[in-house]
Amino acid sequence: MARSESGVRPSEARQRLLTTATRIFYGEGIHSVGVDRIIAEAKVTRATFYRHFPGKEDLVLAYLRAADHAIRDQVDAAITAGLPASDTLRAAAESIARDIQSAGFRGCAFLNAVAEYPDPDHPVHQAVLAHRQWFLDTINALLASIEETEAESAARHFVMLRDGAMAAGCLFDPALIAETFLRGVEGLIRTHAARRPS
C-alpha cells in the first residue's frame, strides 16, 4: 500500500474511500456523485468519511493527487531508465497509448475534472492546472535536451496531441487513436531533432 504525502501509511478505510471515489468519479463524473453513495459503496460510516475528508472537495482533490502521482510515476520511470530524451518521450507516449486502450477508458481525468470546475480560482481547477504545468514542463525539458530551439513550442504541440488523443480515445476506436497519436509524436520528435545544427 502506498504511503501518504506525510510518509504515513493511509488507513484501510481512507484507501477504500479513495479507491471507490476514483472508480465512480472517473466513470460517471464528479458532480453527479454524492458523498452518501461513496460512503455506501466504500462500506464505511459517515463519521469515518469525515475523519479522513472534511468534505467532498477534499476527496476530489485527493482523487486528482492520486491520478497526478500515478502519471508522474509513469513518466519518472521512463526518465530514470536512462534512455536518450527521444526514447524517454516515446516511452511516455507509449504509456499514454496503453492508457487509451485500457478497459473502461473515459478520457483524461484532469480534463474531465476541469470541465466540471470551470472557475479558475477553484482548488480543483488549480490542481488540474498544476498537473498540466508539470507535464508541459517535463516534456519541454526532454525536448530541450534534444534541441533547445523551439522546445517550448514542440512541448505544447506534444501536450495538444495528447489531449486530442485522450478526448478521441473514448469516442472512436482506441487502437486507431493510439496508433495515430504515436505516429504524431514520432513525427514531432523527428522534426524537433532535425532542428539541431549539423
Give a structural overview.
The protein is an all-alpha fold and 198 residues long. It folds into two domains: 9-54, Homeodomain-like (Arc Repressor Mutant, subunit A, Orthogonal Bundle); 56-193, Tetracycline Repressor, domain 2, CATH 1.10.357.10. Helices cover 72% and strands 0% of the residues. It is built from nine helices and no strands. α1 crosses α2 (35-42), α4 packs parallel to α7 (123-146) and α5 runs antiparallel to α9. The radius of gyration is 19 Å and the shape is elongated. The model has no long low-confidence stretch (mean pLDDT 93).
Quick take:
Helix content is 72%, strand content 0%. It is mostly helical. It is elongated and about 65 Å long.
Largest sheet: none
What's the alpha carbon Rg, rounded to whole Å? 19 Å
**Run of helices and strands:** HHHHHHHHH
Average the pLDDT over all residues and give the rounded result. 93
User: Any idea of the CATH class of the largest domain?
Assistant: Mainly Alpha
CATH superfamily caption of the largest domain: Tetracycline Repressor, domain 2
**Terminal CA distance:** 50 Å
Class by SSE composition: mainly alpha
Could you please say which CATH topology of the largest domain applies here? Tetracycline Repressor, domain 2
**Count of helix runs:** 9
List the helices and strands and how they pair.
Blueprint: H1 12-28, H2 35-42, H3 46-52, H4 56-80, H5 85-100, H6 109-116, H7 123-146, H8 151-168, H9 174-193
Helix pairs in contact: 1-2, 1-4, 4-5, 4-7, 5-7, 5-9, 6-7, 7-8, 8-9
